[in-house]
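User: Predict the full complex structure for these chains.
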Amino acid sequence: MLAARLNLRLGGAEAVVELAERDAPKTSKLLLSLLPVEERARHAMESGREVYVVLGESVDIPEENQTIYQTVGDVLMYYKPSVFIEPGWPEYANEKPVLSWVYERDTAIMGTYGPLATNVVGKIARGLDKLQAEAPRMRREGFGTMKLSRL
Amino acid sequence: MKRTARRILLDLDGTRATATLYDEFAPKTCEAAWNILPVTGRAIHANWSGREIMLHLEGEKVLRLPQEMKVRSNFVTEGDITYFYRASQMSRGKQLAYSAQFQRELSEFAIFYGSPAGEGLSAYDPARTPYKEGVHVLNKFATLDRPIPEEFRLKCEALRGEGLKPLTVSRYSEG
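Assistant: Here is the predicted structure of the two-chain assembly.
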């Protein structure tokens, strides 16, 4: 079976994501149901080279195909502690569902007390080099939107 | 007679905060930092260490200082200002967001403007410890005066989405 492919756009960079439908069928199905996703892109401040978007409150991410050993090109879905996202969010907003990807090796997704297990829902199959240039550019010049849609 | 604590002024894109040097705790770092002021550059937000902005020292302002204190977990907290040095070849991955100077070696002032501070990857990464002279140096040398102006905090936070902003660190004296 050919893996479903998605288009990932960050600012002026485009890439192709292959979904991990065999290893993460429930998460892949969930992600497909959310497409297209278009939100303000954010950069991690606790985990290294990770770009992410915050998903809606109602998104319920199952625990599946998890690892704490994320690597370059991984596309992830998990709950990020809200303290790493916005400083002013209320105390009860402990965590938010996010969709993210890792663009360099010096990255480890962190929770508030240590490494955080995340679902690996896909892999950047093409265009990683474009994202590796665009994400640092946005860190310097300001972040735009990220869009994930069916190819 | 005890000397009056030395203070510094941080001007981030027109928004200001003051800090007091830890002269008794980190005398060498305080003296070295004081002697290169004023320092101007473009601050960038951290991506490992929580609510921290960094000012990379470049050219004649680069400091290569000895480790001056023991570093333990939870070493930095909100309000701390540290000097950090990392030798060349000790950066992992590409460092495209930073200047060419940073890619060779990193010498910086790190300003922890909020919480969490110093957590995340930097707190658990074995490659970043132990702190070793000439390789990794981390000295805490000042603290932001309380209360930290809310406008300053918000400006620091804004770097995450808006990118680099000009930061000047200078000597400060009231009146």
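The two ends of chain B are 22 Å apart (CA to CA).
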